[in-house]
Automatic annotation (TrEMBL):
Domain TH1: 812-967
Subcellular location: Cell projection, Dendrite; Cytoplasm, Cell cortex; Early endosome; Perikaryon
Name of the featured protein: Unconventional myosin-Id
Location of region: Actin-binding: 572-594
Gene name of this polypeptide: myo1d
Tagged with keyword Transport: yes
Length: 967
């Protein structure tokens, strides 16, 4: 069964219809067409409805969806049937064929293109150049054959006016290695006549619209198609096909296939010659027939590479041999016109057959030895004209309809035979199916001595003047009692038939009235031998090859050539035998409307096509009581999740037992039959119920699998993360150890170094150890400092502490703090630097003050210059002890002028400049402003010493200020 589609699109397989009837069949076909589903199955037959619009369902992605899949695994598609034929050919080493049928405009040619496209896409996985070349030539041949064999009709802009059967040969690996094309019954009458609104073959218009001016001049033709009688008959010059672009595409395709430049030029010359022939007119001068426009004879002589007098003679005379005598009989005006038209038709037919033969010469399998390379297998693709009913049905249409009867007979026989064989193989009782057997109609046409073709051939062989009316009389005589034949003579009251002109056949597809006008001439297909000799004697080797009969001498006796009807009958018998020897696959094309609308579905018209294609009978035969059948393993694979006994795998004796257990558990055992290798389901409802249960279980299974898979993914992510963390931890440990080892190596001998390792460069730490490095540097700095100061005396230690305190307090505020020299502290006594004459006096006063104020030691003493509140400067001295600050007058033997307990000092401010201005702030706001600079050497700053001493003594760091405004 095709992949389960929503019922909004109808049934994907007509076999699954609840009731097999024409109304239900048509309703399902219409619904799928309106929903954009143009393909539907009948078992292994594809029904295709022409959508009349471009559809994005033939891309490379779509090819991949169907490649290697079974029919039921994907929605219905042409690619599915092509893949089935390819698999049967490759896996079972069987020759297969795909038969595409339907009326004109139903999409047969497009279907054959897509099938070829699919086969080309799935072959040659190794991209071998030779295989790619063969594939390219097979595809390009379509383009060339369409140009010369297709035409615009009232029903189809690209209608095939010939039957085409292509065999594609494959090697044992399944790669294409060549092919062969057979063509049937080219509608050559279209060369000289077209129905109103139709065109002749595309090739004429492509030449006129697409050829460069230089080529047209060499062919003596102009771009205007209306200038040529043969191709303006139908009055339709335009088409949806771009003639100019197609001309270039066809020329390129012919080059790719292997046509030489001279061969392509000859093709153009023949087309131009046919156009000129159509404009050739004849007149009468007494009893003599003349060519009125002789200039065209000269042109044709040049194009055909022959002599002008030979061309004129062949057009006006006929050479007849009577015994040993040879006479030239002049044509009447009517005979000359008939010969001209016959020559035009024959030249085009020979050209088309030569093109097909030339393609076959190039693409056929060469140098293939089955003993060495293995058996090559074949896929055949048949794209043949469809059954049609026109207002005036001619000889060609009679042959076409006979062809369809023949193929329909084969279709019914093979389908019925396949079904019967399958039922017998599986041991299922076969139910007889009533179907229309059109063997009686095939016999009516082709039976020896009694068939229409035989009567026609007999009429053509009669001596004397034979007319179409004589042929109709012969039909009336031999077929008067046949149930499927009638004429006006046999049914005098039937006014839809004309006397001596019409006969009616009751075809499988319906009643068709044929006009016998032209049957005799078309069957004889007479072409004067003079034309054959003319063209055989051309100096153009291509033309010479096309007309081998021309080498016969005038007096040489030959067998009567077979008639067109006999040749066509024989080709059809041969074709049917060829198809019957292969495993067939079918594409049945339906035309939804006559106006080429993508929206309109004409139900009555489609119903008629369904009838003559035998689609409903095909459904009945396929059903034969059972809507669905499948092999046990395949059935189990699709539905095993429904039963606990078969999911995920069964332990029963065989797949057949497992299927039985599954269907019994679902309650469907009464609606099925068990064959030897397949299970048969009777009603579609059972199948739909199985599909619904499967869809429900698939959803649960998917959720379960999602859960398990998500858990698996989470565990995988966790393991990866854990592994990453272990690696990261180990790496970090390695980096830490490496860093510590490096630090240890560099600082191992710092104790013995002169600077205790101060100049050693620290290694760059990893990011994780940056803070650790800072702490380590701090520890080292403290150790280095401790190492330096541990050998100092108490006095030196106190001075170092004062310098450190001063540095921290004034760092960045003053450039010079006197850190590089020894601080003496008591400058008025020590070394007697400031006032050596009065040092004794100052020492005496200091001793008296110590006894009086009980201080422990002198911290700082210095001459200063005091600034009073009147902004006057006076020389003074400052003495700072561990308890008081004294202002003294050096002029009065350092007599104390003011005594400030240190606890009354709230802060000290210093200037940032080079001066040594100091302000001592007091609680009573009577600040003392002094300048240490006055009597001190300019390069000796004592501000740092003063601040540091006070900081470590009276702990006033927190109220230290800087007055930047002080000068």
């Amino acid at each position: 069964m095709a992949e389960h589609e929503s019922l909004e699109f109808g049934k994907a397989d007509f076999v699954l219809l609840d009731n097999v009837s024409m109304p239900e069949f048509m309703a399902n076909l219409k619904l799928r067409f309106e929903k954009g589903r143009i393909y539907t199955y009948i078992g292994e037959v594809v029904v295709s409805v022409n959508p009349y619009r471009a559809m994005n369902i033939y891309s490379r992605d779509t090819v991949e969806l169907y490649k290697g899949r079974e029919l039921y695994e994907r929605p219905p598609h042409l690619f599915a049937i092509a893949d089935a034929a390819y698999k049967a050919m490759k896996r079972r080493n069987k020759d297969t064929c795909i038969v595409i049928s339907g009326e004109s405009g139903a999409g047969k040619t497009e279907a054959s293109k897509y099938i070829m496209q699919y086969i080309a896409a799935i072959t040659n996985p190794n991209q071998r150049a030779e295989v790619e070349r063969v594939k390219n030539m097979l595809l390009k041949s379509n383009c060339v054959l369409e140009a010369f064999g297709n035409a615009k009709t009232n029903r189809n802009d690209n209608s095939s006016r010939f039957g085409k059967y292509m065999d594609i040969n494959f090697d044992f690996k399944g790669d294409p290695i060549g092919g062969h094309i057979s063509n049937y019954l080219l509608e050559k009458s279209r060369v000289i006549f077209q129905q109103n609104g139709e065109r002749s073959f595309h090739s004429f218009y492509q030449l006129l619209k697409g050829a460069p001016d230089s080529l047209l001049r060499s062919l003596h033709i102009q771009k205007d198609p209306t200038a040529y009688s043969y191709i303006r008959v139908g009055g339709q010059m335009k088409s949806s096909i771009n003639d100019g672009a197609e001309f270039r595409a066809v020329a390129d395709a012919m080059k790719v296939i292997g046509f030489t430049g001279d061969e392509i030029q000859t093709v153009y010359k023949i087309l131009a010659t046919i156009l000129h022939l159509g404009n050739l007119t004849f007149g009468v001068d007494g009893d003599t027939t003349l060519i009125e426009n002789k200039k065209l004879v000269s042109v044709m002589r040049e194009l055909l590479s022959t002599k002008e007098e030979n061309v004129e003679k062949a057009l006006l005379y006929r050479t007849v041999a009577t015994g040993r005598d040879v006479i030239e009989k002049q044509h009447t005006e009517q005979e000359a016109s008939y010969g001209r038209d016959a020559l035009a038709k024959a030249m085009y037919e020979r050209l088309f057959c030569w093109i097909v033969g030339r393609i076959n010469d190039i693409i056929e399998v060469k140098n293939y030895d089955a003993r060495v390379h293995g058996k090559n297998t074949v896929i055949g693709v048949l794209d043949i004209y469809g059954f049609e009913i026109f207002q005036n049905n001619s000889f060609e249409q009679f042959c076409i309809n006979y062809c369809n009867e023949k193929l329909q007979q084969l279709f019914i026989q093979l389908v019925l035979k396949q079904e019967q064989e399958e039922y017998q193989r599986e041991g299922i009782p076969w139910k007889h199916i009533d179907y229309f057997n059109n063997q009686i109609i095939v016999d009516l046409v082709e039976q020896q001595h009694k068939g229409i073709f035989s009567v026609l051939d007999e009429a053509c062989m009669n001596v004397g003047k034979v007319t179409d009316e004589v042929f109709l009389q012969g039909l009336n005589g031999k077929l008067a009692k046949h149930a499927h034949f009638s004429s006006r003579k046999l049914s005098p009251t039937d006014k839809s038939l004309e006397f001596d002109r019409d006969f009616r056949l009751r075809h499988y597809a319906g009643d068709v009235v044929y006009s016998v006008v032209g049957f005799i001439d078309k069957n004889k297909d007479t072409l004067f031998q003079d034309f054959k000799r003319l063209l055989y004697n051309s100096s153009n080797p291509v033309l010479k090859v096309m007309w081998p009969e021309g080498k016969l001498s005038i007096t040489e006796v030959t067998k009567r050539p077979l008639t067109a009807a006999t040749l066509f009958k024989n080709s059809m018998i041969s074709l049917v035998e060829n198809l019957a020897s292969k495993e067939p696959y079918y594409v049945r094309c339906v035309k939804p409307n006559d106006v080429k609308s993508p929206l309109l579905f004409e139900e009555e018209r489609c119903r008629h096509q369904v009838e003559y294609l035998g689609l409903l009978e095909n459904v009945r035969v396929r059903r034969a009581g059972f809507a669905y059948r499948q092999t046990y393993p395949r059935f189990l694979q699709r539905y095993k999740m429904i039963s606990e006994f078969t999911w995920p795998n069964h332990d029963l004796g065989s797949d057949k037992d497992a299927v039985k257990r599954l269907l019994q558990g679902c309650g469907f055992d009464h609606d099925v039959a068990y064959g030897k290798t397949k299970v048969f389901v009777r009603t579609p409802r059972t199948l739909f119920s199985l599909e619904e249960q499967r869809a429900e279980m698939v959803q649960r299974i998917v959720l379960f699998l999602q859960k398990v898979w998500r858990g698996t993914l989470a565990r995988m992510r966790y393991r990866r993360m854990r592994a990453a963390l272990v690696i990261l931890r180990a790496y970090r440990c390695y980096k830490v150890k490496s860093y510590i080892r490096e630090v240890n190596r560099r600082f191992r001998n710092v104790r013995s170094m002169k600077d205790y390792g101060r100049q050693v460069k620290w290694p760059t730490p990893p990011k994780v150890l940056r803070k650790f490095e800072e702490a380590l540097r701090s520890i080292y700095s403290r150790w280095w400092a401790w190492t330096l100061i541990k050998g100092l005396t108490p006095e030196e230690t106190l001075q170092v502490r004062a310098k450190v305190a001063s540095l921290e307090a004034l760092k960045g505020q003053r450039a010079d703090m006197g850190l590089q020299r020894t601080w003496e502290g008591n400058y008025l006594v020590g070394q007697k630097r400031d006032s050596p004459d009065t040092a004794a006096s100052f020492a005496l006063i200091t001793s008296e003050l110590q006894r009086k104020d009980k201080f422990m030691r002198v911290l700082f003493s210095c001459n200063v210059r005091k600034i009073n509140r009147f902004h006057r400067a006076e020389d003074r001295a400052v003495l700072i002890t561990d308890r008081h600050l004294y202002k003294m007058d050096p002029l009065k033997q350092y007599k104390p002028m003011k005594t400030l307990p240190l606890y009354n000092v709230t802060g000290v401010s210093v200037s940032p400049g080079k001066d040594q201005l100091v302000v001592f702030h007091t609680k009573d706001n009577r600040d003392l402003v002094v300048c240490l600079q006055g009597m001190v050497p300019a390069n000796e700053s004592r501000i740092g010493e003063l601040v540091g001493t006070l900081l470590i003594t009276v702990q006033i760091y927190h109220f230290l200020h800087f007055y930047n405004q002080l000068s």
